[in-house]
Please model this.
Amino acid sequence: MSAKDRKILFFDIDGTLITEDGTRYFPESAKKAIAAARKNGHLVFINTGRVYCNITEEIRQAGFDGYVCGCGTCIIYNDKVLFHNKLNKELCRDMAKLCRDNHFFGLYEYKDNVYIDGENKDNEFLLEMTDYFKRNGIYVGEDVNSEEFVFDKFCAWFDEGNENLPAFKNYVNKDFDYIDRGSNFCEIVPKGYSKATGIQFLLDYFDLPLENAYAFGDGNNDEPMLSYVPNSIIMAKGPEELKKKVMMVTEDAEFDGIYNAMKKLEII
Model:
């Protein structure tokens, strides 16, 4: 296959490859499509807000070439870390204190582990996620003042009507981008990094043009990559405004949307 024919595909996980109905179902049709694309000579990457330690074994066994993790803050190819943005530990502690002071419940994600603030964890969604990480063998630290505490990005829950939200956003926006995920939940990513920057890093690495990139997503945190590439595919359950901006809308995961889109696009 010539370079001009080789495509590079990027897949969000939650709501795109797997369902968000509690079963976390990863359809066999999607696994089949991923394998077929690689067999045809194309490159296939995960592109997710999840950090690397939270890529489950089921996802890894599907046979991806690599992973863009933490919204572009860590990039892995063939089990080798090509790039990892490392934040200042003092800045990380400052963010944890900001969350505590403003009644935000943070989940601090690093490529190798996750942290919560042991003194600021009284939130049912945070505790549910903490339990999920522990059940999957991921280390969960609770001392945000320790020397080991660092993160690549973080997310946070807050109560309805939290009056500190405007001030929190204003402070965070000095060094990070605030992504509203809805339902009193936000994702906080270092400035200069996104799913789109992860795509461009790999296009440069493989010397591929932008028109060879395909991105599959379903939600607002996929908007950077779906807007960046000309070949953008969103799941049917995605936001209506975002669906107006993409090249293709496909069926949701449980209805073989990934497989169907890749067939229509003649990738497989």
About this structure: The chain has a mean pLDDT of 94. The chain is about 30% helix and 25% strand.
